[in-house]
Write a structure and sequence with these properties.
- The structure holds 2 protein chains of 2 kinds.
- Chain A folds into 3 domains: 141 residues, no CATH class; 107 residues, Cytochrome Bc1 Complex, Chain D, domain 2; 95 residues, Cytochrome Bc1 Complex, Chain D, domain 2.
- In chain A, 39% of the residues lie in helices and 4% in strands.
- Chain A has a two-stranded antiparallel sheet.
- Chain B folds into 2 domains: 70 residues, Ubiquitin-like (UB roll) (Roll); 77 residues, [2Fe-2S]-binding domain (DNA polymerase, domain 1, Orthogonal Bundle).
- In chain B, a hairpin with a 2-residue loop joins strand 3 and strand 4.
- In chain B, helix 2 packs across helix 5.
- The chains are: A mainly alpha, B alpha+beta.
- At the A-B interface, helix 13 of A face strand 4 and helix 4 of B.
Chain lengths: 448, 153
């Protein structure tokens, strides 16, 4: 039998099977790569900014139309929330060094103060635009998409350069950032070039001519500057955004970024416009509780600085995102727990949960969950408390919030698990069953 | 100006709405019986009553109080339950250093107002957030029961 003779039937079947698998893999690959864009859900006709005849949805709001470039840059820098990631815990703002703990190592954010040696002081405008739009630094090195350039890519040149002007007005800080600790192959930055070709559109914002000016402003703010998708949209196996499940929620840095689609139960469909606006601008809305973790930071450092018309635009845009239900996120329980500690909790819970709660939690949160102290501490109706994974409850206990002290150093993993289970059982719609091991895993995932 | 109803009297205070009630009580109104302990609602030394319920004043923004009645340790003895609790505290000599005790008494009075005859677990649920570094817990528990008995009588 020579090499060119017809293969036997089993071999032929094998080859056909292999070809079939390859075809399926390719189809799957292209299904991900050619997935919808972040604003595809809206349909309609999109036009370039130059061809758009409505009010310019980019730039600063009308209140700042006549402000200096630095004032505009400051507003946009806050709107893009650069400071949240480019500031280490307790560090100098924008001097970098915050660690992003990933399954394959830790990435440290860059120093973006205008220091010539360790910051971006020598960067040209073109380098800065390249970083924001293409994810390439001034030396041609590819950035990791922890820097949300796939979102910032839709930012206009003028807005990006206003941000640069603001950053260059800051005091230069000499701060060498630690090297990343990524393992092979994730330490091969060139691979990020391939990733960018596949997943970074490198396109500036295109308004949707069939939508209102307010919607377009909201789309620009939410998609480009505030980069909401980076946390709230789940990712594909290639870590690109899975826009087929846009805003359906994901877990980031150990916290659950919840479903913010218009689904009435899992998402924010049941929230009023006023509640959404209040939550975004102040971090709290009656009946929905307070933002904690990364969302608390986003409110503190970014959203709380937006003018009311910009918040309203984001709300308009959010409202238009199609509803997607998340199976484990039912509508939050809207009624308070009984006033007596004796009622309202099933009996088989770890008694340590109640013990921790009565000593450390009850004085602020009350036994009903409606805080006698401040509405910021009310637990009734809060999404995290109505999440049977209790991920964000445990994270809040470990790390605290602006208002709540951190208890991570004061209680063991088992105690934190017990109190999280007690809280979801008492105040939520379905109880969690997390363990000390789960809490230990959460401690490791936080950015630091 | 914020109007506060403290111990039956109206006080007009010129303070920001997010100032904790404790600061207003001690530094503006001059009622220093309520103590500053931890400042993060974890120790109970700053406990006062808002409409009869025990609340940590170190974390309570004055802007959220409105017209609700504020009672502090200075006036709690004017209520029958408050008087009985204070007498029980004296009879059993509960106090050691005393720093936490105004908070302890405020929590105990609120407990007895809601639960006239508390058992040990009621006392735990109501008093666990009031910390005493001298360790007077045993006498606190006894005094609460004594006051409850006096109430029944």
């Amino acid at each position: 039998m020579n090499a060119f003779s017809k293969p036997s039937l089993p071999v032929r079947r094998g080859l056909i099977g292999l070809a079939g698998i390859m075809a399926l893999l390719l189809a799957w690959f292209f299904w991900i790569v050619l997935g919808p864009g972040p604003m595809s859900f809206a349909g309609g006709s999109r036009v370039t900014l130059a061809n758009y005849h409505g009010v310019d949805p980019t730039g600063v709001p009308s209140e700042l139309a006549h402000a200096s470039l630095l004032k505009k840059g400051e507003y946009l820098t806050r709107a893009a929330d650069c400071g949240a990631c480019h500031t280490a815990r307790g560090g100098v703002p924008f001097a970098g060094g915050l660690g992003f703990v990933l399954p394959f190592g830790t990435i440290y954010s860059a120093n973006i103060t205008p220091d010539k040696d360790t910051g971006i002081g020598t960067w040209s405008d073109a380098s800065f635009l390249n970083a924001l739009h293409k994810g390439i630094d001034d030396e041609g090195v590819h950035l990791y998409p922890a820097m949300p350039y796939a979102s910032y890519t839709s930012m206009t040149d003028a807005d990006a350069l206003a941000i640069k002007a603001y950053l260059f007005s800051l005091k230069p800080i000499h701060a060498v950032v630690r090297d990343n600790t990524l393992v092979f192959p994730f330490n091969q930055r060139r691979l990020m070039g391939v990733w960018s070709v596949l997943f970074n559109s490198d396109k500036r914002f295109e308004p949707n001519a069939t939508r209102s000016p307010q919607w377009n402003r909201g789309a620009y703010l939410a998609e480009s500057l505030e980069h909401c998708s980076e946390c709230h949209t789940p990712r594909t196996i290639f870590q690109s955004l899975n826009n087929r499940r846009k805003f359906a929620g994901a877990t980031q840095a150990g916290w659950r970024a919840y479903n913010i689609t218009s689904d009435a139960n899992s998402g924010v469909g049941a929230w009023s416009d006023a509640d959404l606006a209040k939550y975004l601008s102040s971090g709290n809305a009656a009946g929905h509780g307070s933002a904690g973790g990364p969302m608390g930071e986003a409110v503190d450092k970014s959203l709380s600085y937006l003018v009311p018309s910009d918040i309203a635009a984001i709300v308009t845009y959010l409202r238009s995102v199609p509803a997607i239900s998340t199976s484990d996120l039912p509508a939050p329980k809207a009624t308070p727990a009984p006033a007596s500690y004796k009622e309202g909790v099933v009996a088989d819970y770890d008694p340590r949960g109640k013990k921790v709660f009565e000593g450390a939690c009850a004085s602020c949160h009350g036994w009903t969950g409606v805080s006698p102290v401040t509405h910021y501490a009310t637990l009734t109706g809060v999404r995290a408390v109505n999440d049977p994974t209790a991920i964000n409850v445990a994270e809040t206990v470990i790390n605290g919030t602006d208002y709540m002290p951190a208890f991570g150093q004061g209680y063991s993993n088992d105690e934190i698990a017990a109190v999280a289970n007690y809280v979801t059982a008492r105040f939520g719609v379905s109880p969690s069953r997390i363990t000390g091991k789960d809490v230990a895993a959460l401690r490791k995932q936080a950015s630091n | 100006m914020t109007s506060l109803r403290i111990n039956g009297q109206i006080h007009e205070v010129d303070v920001p709405g997010d100032m904790p009630l404790l600061w207003v009580l001690r530094d503006v109104v001059g009622l220093t019986g309520t103590k500053f302990g931890c400042g993060i609602a974890q120790c109970g030394a700053c406990t006062v009553h808002i409409d009869g319920k025990a609340v940590r004043s170190c974390f309570l923004p004055v802007g959220e109080i409105g017209n609700r009645a504020i009672t502090t340790i200075e006036a709690v003895g004017e209520t029958p339950t408050g008087a009985k609790v204070q007498k029980a505290w004296l009879d059993l000599e509960v106090v050691q250093c005393g720093y936490c005790q105004s908070g302890q008494i405020m929590s105990a009075v609120a407990l007895l107002a809601a639960t006239p005859n508390p058992d040990d677990s009621d006392i735990d649920a109501a008093m666990a957030g009031n910390i005493c570094r001298c360790g007077t817990y045993v006498r606190i528990r006894a005094a609460i029961k004594k006051a409850a008995g006096a109430q029944q009588a």
